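Narrative of accomplishments. A recurring question from our advisory board has been how the design workflow behaves on a single, concrete structure rather than in aggregate. To address it, we present the structure tokens for one chain from the evaluation set, followed by the sequence designed for it. No filtering or post-editing was applied between the two.
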């Protein structure tokens, strides 16, 4: 099940989430980080590190 990664407009582009992600699922985009949900394990490290609470990761419910 792939998680959903949402990065909100209040993202400042600080890059802390990119540096924190153990799976390298995030990388720099034009304004906000880009995400690859295929490698994200929904560990929530990026959510916890973000200083402006701009990133949300939700694990899709198992069916
Ligand atoms: S939840 Fe974990 S694996 Fe997924 S993007 Fe964030 S830091 Fe990376
Ligand atoms: S840590 Fe938060 S503010 Fe910084 S780049 Fe990531 S989502 Fe944006």
């Amino acid at each position: 099940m792939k998680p959903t990664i949402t990065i909100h407009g209040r993202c400042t582009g600080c890059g802390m989430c990119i540096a924190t992600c153990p799976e390298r699922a995030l990388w720099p985009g034009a304004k906000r980080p880009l995400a690859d949900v295929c490698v994200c394990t929904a560990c929530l490290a990026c959510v916890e590190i973000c200083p402006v609470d701009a990133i949300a990761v939700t694990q899709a419910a198992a069916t």
